[in-house]
Amino acid sequence: MTDPPGRRAEIGDVLLDVRNISLSFGGVKALSDISFDVREHEIRAIIGPNGAGKSSMLNCINGVYQPQQGEIRLRGEDMGRFSPRHRQRRMAERGVARTFQNLALFKGMSVLDNIMAGRGLHMKRNLLWQALRLGPALHEEIEHREQVERLIDFLEIQPYRHTPVGGLPYGLQKRVDLGRALAMEPRVLLLDEPMAGMNVEEKQDMCRFILDVNDEFGTTIVLIEHDMGVVMDISDRVVVLDYGRKIGDGTPDEVRASEEVVRAYLGPGH
């Protein structure tokens, strides 16, 4: 499954450029001088043991954390020039969406309404118009609902469109979370352990959806995942972190062959 035919040829220029990022919390160094890039249309994995700094890196990319050093450029634009207050919105406006390891869905709302929440950035009418569902706001809602229905079909969750999310199995909740992120029409999709807690069948389904999002929508994906079989099968390139340092960067085969990466995962003597 490595290097799926027809995908690698579509990979384009650098879309996201992470340069010399360092991040500390008090005296604790979470990231130390990390640099890597993400190319358009690729699946780029970030891996490492627990505490390696993977989620911290993702939080820097989408503006949750402000690194003390370095810069993050999206399509050549330095995101660090924005205040922390505006950075996350700017990233969203520029086409960056994210899912989280710990689901943050509206458990009492339906699948359809949860995914509709991801369309908020594209809705032009103010909240009062949307609440009243009158005139232009009603027409706008119909248009956005059609797009959400297409995502529901794509993710194969049609039977659950009106079901409260809290009543769904965990694997289906993960699909809803993916659908809400896709509703933003992202150019870059950040996935924080999208397969954590899933059984084998659920992981296979999620792998298929991730590959389909990358292939059919042309979405660039940055992925954190602990399942090395999954990472090595679906990723174009992999960056490896260990205690906040970068210890590997390359294709799955190159990373697999690195003695330092093997030691970080398996320990001395293996």
UniProtKB/TrEMBL annotation:
Gene3D superfamilies xref list: P-loop containing nucleotide triphosphate hydrolases
Pfam families: ABC_tran (PF00005), BCA_ABC_TP_C (PF12399)
ABC transporter domain residues: 16-268
Gene Ontology molecular-function annotations: ATP binding
Record's keyword annotation contains Transmembrane: no
Matching InterPro entries: AAA+_ATPase, ABC_AA/LPS_Transport, ABC_transporter-like_ATP-bd, BCA_ABC_TP_C, P-loop_NTPase
Family matches, as SUPFAM superfamilies: P-loop containing nucleoside triphosphate hydrolases
Protein name according to UniProt: ABC transporter ATP-binding protein
Originating organism: Roseateles amylovorans
